[in-house]
């Protein structure tokens, strides 16, 4: 259906206007101007910030520059989470542009994974895709693909090529005609308030009686405190790609249309703004 | 080239069984003072095995590198000194002993239905070991394996319960070799402790050894997981 395909494009081309500012304690030879960039929601910070790095390195001495890392209001940002997830989780109800602070020193070893090269991002991305397929298809589809197909998924993401990416990814979204969906849904639910970084469980898209499970069913099963009963006051928002899908949406449909390129549904549960 | 997945064959490890095997494992560990404990997470009730221990590392510093900074030295195996200290001293070099604190966690992966080994290491001053230092400290006989394939590789990942960076031994091929071992009479191996089997195989790659007495955990001594 045309409408469904539009969703795929809308997800892929989502952008977040961001302002990068150098941390004030970094040592510079002259003043560092902020750098503005539209960040792709579906990508990863260390994959799309080469220009940011170059911009700030221009005003710094070589010996003051070590591995780059990013922080928002004191929270180190995990580069291995998709950008859209980071924004939804930490800053979705704040004014744009998103203000991120750039650091080149004192890498927070206890909080962030290292990212010394693009290979690390690729390995992480592919590991997520493989795990998603383990859940959806017992790894059968991903294992049947050739190495060049795997490479095409990564190149599509890296070069922002929607068609190139989906030429291969569509195979990961198929299922046998006798089934009505995937074996299990690849998802992770994030809440900024917990020590646990995310919740991930086995969850079937189809109930034993054949009905389609909904987003609401998933939340109730995995994170029941997030959905209040019908006493009106919904204290939290269930957010994917910056929107709140209706809780009645079939989770199978969401998995096929609103997963990130890593084939996971990354869902944020955040406090509802009170104004 | 890709890793095969036990979708079709048996030898999945269900989460309930995982917990039961871990319980038996911890009981034996307590009997022999091996230091393992089970940690339960407060929010969801899932958990993991945990053990911390200290290892002494001998670092040989070749005389010509003595002036340079420590990153250039070649660390030797943990607790196994390949060359006698005397030789390096005779050649004009020195050696220092360093204590490394190792923390090992065994978690359950519901996606792959296998246990996964997470670990991290730091010096006593708190400085964590880099991935490079970890790789170099892997026993020589496993190094070739590590370089060969992505399946047995060690990468840095986020601990799914603690949210902190750990090193992880890739679980991809676990089911493959476990199946190979458990193939044959399923009856006979029905109560073999999967955790002991698995950990005794993957642990040594990253400096974790299980005392032989774990092998004596006979079926009649371990609880029948099916009755759990």
TrEMBL record, chain A:
Annotated ranges, domain Autophagy protein ATG5 UblB? 184-269
The record ties this protein, via Pfam families, to: ATG5_HBR (PF20637), ATG5_UblA (PF20638), ATG5_UblB (PF04106)
Principal place of residence: cytoplasm
Which UniProt keywords are present, listed alphabetically? Answer: Acetylation, Apoptosis, Autophagy, Cytoplasm, Immunity, Isopeptide bond, Membrane, Ubl conjugation
Q: Which residues form the Autophagy protein ATG5 alpha-helical bundle region domain?
A: 119-174
Output the superkingdom of the source species.
Eukaryota
All residue ranges annotated as the Autophagy protein ATG5 UblA domain in the record: 11-104
Membrane-protein topology: Peripheral membrane protein
Q: What is the gene name?
A: Atg5
This entry carries the following GO cellular component terms, namely: Atg12-Atg5-Atg16 complex; autophagosome; mitochondria-associated endoplasmic reticulum membrane contact site; phagophore; phagophore assembly site membrane
Q: Which family does it belong to?
A: Belongs to the ATG5 family.
Q: Subunit comment for this entry?
A: Forms a conjugate with ATG12. Part of the minor complex composed of 4 sets of ATG12-ATG5 and ATG16L1 (400 kDa); this complex interacts with ATG3 leading to disruption of ATG7 interaction and promotion of ATG8-like proteins lipidation. Forms an 800-kDa complex composed of ATG12-ATG5 and ATG16L2. The ATG12-ATG5 conjugate interacts with RAB33A; this interaction is bridged by ATG16L1 and promotes ATG12-ATG5-ATG16L1 complex recruitment to phagophores. Interacts with TECPR1; the interaction is direct and does not take place when ATG16L1 is associated with the ATG5-ATG12 conjugate.
Q: Which Gene3D superfamilies match?
A: 3.10.20.620, Autophagy protein Apg5, helix rich domain, Phosphatidylinositol 3-kinase Catalytic Subunit, Chain A, domain 1
- Biological process annotations from GO: apoptotic process; autophagosome assembly; autophagy of mitochondrion; cellular response to nitrogen starvation; immune system process; negative regulation of programmed cell death; piecemeal microautophagy of the nucleus
Name recorded for this polypeptide: Autophagy protein 5
Q: What does this protein do?
A: Involved in autophagic vesicle formation. May play an important role in the apoptotic process, possibly within the modified cytoskeleton. Its expression is a relatively late event in the apoptotic process, occurring downstream of caspase activity. Plays a crucial role in IFN-gamma-induced autophagic cell death by interacting with FADD.
- One term of GO molecular function: Atg8-family ligase activity
Q: Where in the cell is it found?
A: Cytoplasm; Preautophagosomal structure membrane
TrEMBL record, chain B:
| Keywords for this protein | Autophagy, Cytoplasm, Protein transport, Transferase, Transport, Ubl conjugation pathway
Q: Transmembrane region positions?
A: none
The compartments listed are:
Cytoplasm
One GO term (biological process): protein transport
Query: Keyword Transferase, does the record have it?
Result: yes
The UniProt entry, under Gene3D superfamilies, shows: 3.30.1460.50
Q: Quick one: a GO cellular component term?
A: cytosol
Family designation: Belongs to the ATG10 family.
Instruction: Report what the protein is called.
Output: Ubiquitin-like-conjugating enzyme ATG10
Q: Which organism is it from?
A: Chaetorhynchus papuensis (pygmy drongo)
Q: Which gene encodes it?
A: Atg10
